[in-house]
Fold:
Amino acid sequence: MIKTQIAHRSHLRAEDHSPPQGLLDALQSIQTPDGVPAVGVWWLGNHHNKEVVVDQAIYLMGSHNWLSYRGDRLPRGESVFYVTAPETIKNALDYLEPLFKQAALAAWTHDSQRPLENQAGLMRCCTTLVALHRPDDAIDRALDLAKRDSMLIPLGFDLLCLICLSLARYSVDELTHLKVLDSISLAASELSAAGEAGEELDAARRGFGSGLAALLRQYVQTDPAAVADFLNGQIDVWRSIGLIGYKQETADVLLDLRGANVTTGKKAKKKK
Structure:
């Protein structure tokens, strides 16, 4: 999955030494090819750690300042441990991930007070929670937000679309472990029942349908039966978001998903 989480810095308050706003804006404008925010920058409190975890497989820890080193007039010794031991990596993640989650949830509490003005912040929170393997937390918050006011239902669908696109970047094995289809199905059902017809809502529903299709293309590779059950569970909802055509059967959709290229969403060309 393409998602980078960056933490700063060793001060008691974020405002005491925040990175330049231009740098924050540049980092947080980076997106995956399908438009998902790819970088989250968070203040995690008064820490002096210099730690990097890569793909849950590599752990770097030492004295080197990875993001602020500008060189020295004279050579200076630095030491960094390069660790691939699974248990040590797990211990590092058990320490770091709750800090990122706490920061994301605090930001959600703030940004959700004015959600239409802070959509970028809410999207950053959702993609961070997915990157932390907590998609259910993101789905629940997107649903609760949308249920506050009918005007927020399109935003709810937009956030669900973003969550699906973020999940679609996971490997098939990771998706099998996360088991999020039930949560997505429930959220889609509740939002579809609450919303009224309108151009903005219809566009948001179709966008969610496209994001969900990208996710199902991953699932269908290893568990087509689960995808079939998912689609059959509430066909009317999936028709309303354009995932299933009004004259299509579930078997037709499965064939389309199986024949689609996972990264581009385009139909795979048959070799002659």
